[in-house]
Amino acid sequence: MKSVYKINKTRKNESNITKTPLQDITTIIKNNVDSDSSIPSTPNSSQSQSITSTPQTSPLPTTQQQKNVKIRHATKQSVLSFGIDERKQCQECGMSYLKYVQSDVKSHQKYHQKCLNGRDWNDKWGKKLIEFNQNEYICTLNLNNSSEIKASLELLEIVNQNLNAPDDNEFWLKGTDSGKIFIYVKDKKAVGIVSTEKITKGHWFAIDDGVVINKIDIELLAGINRIYVSKNHRRFGIALKLLKCAQEHMIYGMVIPKHKIGWSQPSFSGGKFAKTFNGVKHKSGKILIPVYT
Q1: For the whole model, what pTM was predicted?
Q2: 12, 57, 99, 124: most buried, per Cβ within 10 A?
Q3: Which residues does 64 contact at the CB level (< 8 Å), separation at least 6?
């Protein structure tokens, strides 16, 4: 049988095609399909389209395009796996970060310095309450200064991360007498902080048992919401100095008795410190500290 299409030898213009009768075309297509085992006898619509399409017009990717897609996919996956495997946790500050991600490394360095050595503090910030020497003092905040507030919040963020506790700053940010912040500054670094709030009652807490005695209410005047000292400045009595300052300056014209000060969410180390500050010995021999919620 003669060819279905008669194409000129130059093939410069594929539109110069002479057609045979429709019946002959049908017969040739059937014969071609039967002779090629790679093409099913009843192709679906996409396969029929690929039969009549040229490489330029085919909607299906070429072999080279498929290879490129696979290569890009593999590269992306290897980067993700690499990042997960290289996560590191600092043993000193506790922060987890990616060793080979520059932004993570910088964030860790900044946090690490604040955690160990304190946060930069401008000598013009705050109102000085107690001065130990020219470069060491305790001050309270000026709530109209956003820089002071930001620096204090950064220190409190470290406390909350160590305690796994939520932010709790509303009571002193309001600018009322419901709470105050005291900052310990040394060599232009804020190395300690205590946040206090006014309260009226609390309960006894048995340190050894970890039990709050809810049946008995006790009268309190002030609560220690958060207290923190940078790691490299601990064991120098800074926390005790902050508490004494809060005793004298939280309520105007009054020194708050120790047994009228309660603790919020004391950690293990915080409980030991509270025990030495205002713990009392029960007749059972157990040590109790005042707490509040």
Answers
A1: 0.68
A2: 99
A3: none
